Amino acid sequence: MSGVAVAFFLLSLSAILGGVMMLNASKVMHMMLSLVLTFISIAGIYVLLSAEFVAVVQILIYSGAITILMIFGIMLTKHDASENHKKNWRNLWALLGVIAFGAVLFFGINGLDISSSATDLTTNNTKNIGKLLFSNYIVPFEVMSILLLVALVGAIVLAKSDDKGEGTEG
Q: Which 8-state DSSP code applies to residue 84?
């Protein structure tokens, strides 16, 4: 077995392990750390696929920013930290569902031939993404930035209106 296959196996195993640990953890912060393990493992798989740009974005955006936002959201909301998760038959059904989904995916992509449509993405993929993003897709890029700005302003307005509502109750 080659080194790439061993690395892929280990990264896949750690991604699955992080997901399972997240589902079985009883504390919310432990769930977040398990999710970070899954995100970093997926970034490693992207590196194996010669998609370094996507791997760096995965680490910066998901493992960094999204995780920090989730942690702040957890810390700033009221939740019962001593909530006990009951283990019952749902876990067995979930395991069977995951196994069935994995089998469907395996048999669905087992005989798939994608070599005819594949292009050489291993050289200068970040440069090619930048050229496409700022030449062919500049209008959707700018529209997306305006949409994110409107969403940010809307979130601020909603947060301010919630603060005013809390102060008037007595």
A: P
Contacts of 51 (CB under 8 A, 6+ apart): 121, 125
Estimate to the nearest angstrom the gap between the alpha carbon of 26 and the chain centroid. Answer: 21
Instruction: Give the predicted TM-score (pTM) of the model.
Output: 0.61
pLDDT at residue 170 in the model: 46
Among 10-14, 62-66, 98-102, 124-128, the range scoring the smallest mean pLDDT is: 124-128
- The candidate with the shortest Cα–Cα distance to 62, out of 78, 50, 46, is 46
Tokens of 103: 């089998």
With beta carbons less than 8 A apart as the criterion, state whether 35 and 25 touch: no
Structural domains for the chain: 1-79 (1.20.120.1200)
Query: What is 50-68 written as a DSSP string?
Result: T-HHHHHHIIIIIIIIIHH
Q: Which residues contact 36 (CB under 8 A, 6 or more apart)?
A: 18, 63, 67
Give dist(CA 106, CA 104) in Å, integer. 5
